[in-house]
Amino acid sequence: MAGLTHELRAAGKKVAQECVNFLNASPSPFHAVETCKKDLLAAGFKQLGEGESWKGKVTHKGKYFVTRNASSLIAFTVGGKYEKGNGLKILGAHTDSPCFVLKPKTAEKSSGYKQVGVQTYGGGLWHTWFDRDLSIAGRVVYKTPEGDLKSTLVKVEDPILRIPNLAIHLTTADERTKGFSFNKESHLLPMLCSEAVSELINGKPNAEEKPSHHPELMKLIAEKVGCDVAMISDFDMYLYDVQKGVVGGLYDEFIFSARIDNQISCYSALKALCDEGEADIDKDEMVSMIAIFDHEEVGSASAVGAAGSFTLDVVKRLIAVFDGTDPDSYERAIRSSFVVSVDGVHGVHPNYSDRHHMNHRPVMHSGPAIKYNANQRYATNSIGSSIIKKIAELSSTPIQEICVKNDSPCGSTIGPITATLTGINTIDIGNPMLSMHSVREQCGTIDVLHMNNLLSSFFKNYSKVRASLPLD
Questions:
Q1: How far is CA 201 from each of CA 90, 114, 194, 195, 222, rounded to the nearest angstrom?
Q2: Phi, psi at residue 427, to the nearest 5°?
C-alpha cells in the first residue's frame, strides 16, 4: 500500500465519519434522497419539478436538482461557458440495498406470537438478518382531515422486530453438517410481540375481525405520521438494522455499517458535486451531474430505476433549455458526455482469497477499482479506463483493477444499463468492500477519501482529458 501516510489516514477517518452520518440518516431509499436534498439545498441548489416548465429557471452557472418518486434524484450544475451541444459529466449510483419490505397485508401469527409478513428485496445474505435488532422506515401515504392525500417519511428508531435463529440443538444432523438452510417465505417472518402481552395491554381482539396489519403496528406508524390509523392509505416500508454504522477496527480504519452498497457512492458523488467551486463552474463548458437511482438491486427496470426514462428525460429537457431550434444538439451532447458508474467492488477476502484471481485482488486503502468484464456485465472499455486513470493521476488517486475469475459469477450494476439506454461512453468503478449484501458490510476509511478525490477530479478535469482523446 504505497503512499499510505498518517496525514492520509487522519483525513480518511474524517470523511469516513461524514459518510457514516449519511448512512445512519438513510435507512431507506426515500431517506437517502431526503438526506441528499438537505445537503443540496444547503449548498445553494434549487429544486425543479418534473411537472413544471424549466424555461427561464435553468441558466448558466445555476445549480439544480429534481427527484422522481422521492427515491431517485438527479442534480446538476450548468457551466458558465456551456453551449448547446456540449456534453455532460455524469456520476451514477443507487440508493437501494437488499432488505425486507412489508407486504400489503402483514398480519401473521404463529405459536402465540404476532409476526409481520415481509417480502425479500434484492439478493440479500438473508442469514445475516437473523438475531438482529430490526425496525422499519419508509414512506407513508395518508389522508388529511380535509380528505387530501399526503405523504411523509417515517423512521421508527426502536428495535421492534427480530428474526430469531433456530437453536443448534433443534437443527437436524443434516443441517449441522451441510449448513443451516431456511425457507424465505416461512422462516424469515420477524416477531413483533407475543399475543399474551398484546392482549394484556390492548384487550382481547374481536375474533371476527381479520385486519390486514396488526393494530399495534399500525398505531405506531400512525403516531409517527401524526394521524389516526384510519387515515393511513398505504406505505412503502423497509426493515433496517437499528445498530448504527461506525468507524471501527483497531486503528479506526474501517466502516462497519448497513447499506455501504451503495449509499457510500451516493455520498461521494453528492460531495463531489456540492464541493464544486464557483470559479470552476464559471469556466466550465459542460454540465456536471449526479444521478442516483432506486431499484438497482432488483434490475433497475422501473420508472425510477436506471433502466427507466429519468436520465434521458432530464438530459433532453436540460438541452432543450439552451438549444433553441438546433436539430442535433442532443446527439452532439451525448457523444461528448461520459458516465462514471460508481458501485461497490468485491475486495479480496482474507479467509477466501482464492475466490479472486491472483492478479485481480482489490484491497482496502489502495483506492477505487476499475471493473472489467468481457461479457459486458460492466461497461468499461479501454477508452473509459484510460480517461479515469488520467483523471486519477491528476488527483494523485491510486487505482486498482478487478476482473472476476472465469469460473465465478459476475454481478452487474447501472453502468451497462445506462450505456445501453443513452449511448454514452460509460465506465464502472467502485471501492473495495467485504460482506456485500450482508445486513452489515465493511469498507476502508481511506478509500472513501480516495473516491471523493477521484470524483471531484472527474468534474474538474474530464474536459481537458477528453480533448486529448477524441471519441467516435
A1: 54, 14, 11, 10, 18
A2: -130, 150
- Which residues, in sequence order, are CB contacts of 402 under 8 Å at separation 6+? 345, 346, 356, 360, 361, 362, 369, 370, 371, 372
**Ramachandran area for residue 300 (φ above 0: left; ψ -120 to 50: alpha; else beta):** left
| 3-state helix/strand/coil string of 456-472 | HHHHHHHHHHHHCCCCC
Distance between CA 268 and CA 250 in Å, rounded? 25
How many other CB atoms are found less than 10 A from the CB of residue 286? 23
Q: List Cα–Cα distances, 122 to 16, 184, 262, 469, in angstroms.
A: 26, 12, 13, 39
Could you read off the pLDDT of 163-186 as tens digits, one per residue?
999 999 999 988 888 888 899 999
Contact call for residues 159 and 242 (beta carbons, < 8 A): yes
Beta strands in 159-317, from DSSP E residues, in sequence order: 191-194, 232-241, 246-248, 254-257, 287-293
Burial call 159-182: b when 16+ CB within 10 Å, e when fewer: ebbebeeeeeeeeeeeeeeeeeee
Q: Which of 187-191, 324-328, 379-383, 434-438 has the lowest mean pLDDT?
A: 324-328
Residue 353's CB is within 10 A of a number of other CB atoms, namely: 10
Rounded to 5 degrees, φ, ψ at 269 are -65, -45
Element (H or E) spanning 107, and its range? strand 99-110
- Can you state the angle between helices 445-467 and 382-394, rounded to 10 degrees? 110
Cell numbers representing residue 330 in the block: 442532443
**Phi, psi dihedral angles at 14 (to 5 degrees):** -65, -50
Compute φ and ψ for 104, nearest 5 degrees: -60, -30
- Provide the 10 A C-beta neighbour count for residue 83: 13
SS3 at position 118? strand
Tell me the CB-side half-sphere exposure of residue 344, using CA atoms within 13 A: 27
261 Cβ contact list (under 8 Å, min separation 6):
97, 343, 344, 433, 436, 437, 441
Using pLDDT thresholds of 50, 70 and 90, give the confidence band for residue 390: very high
pTM of the model: 0.96
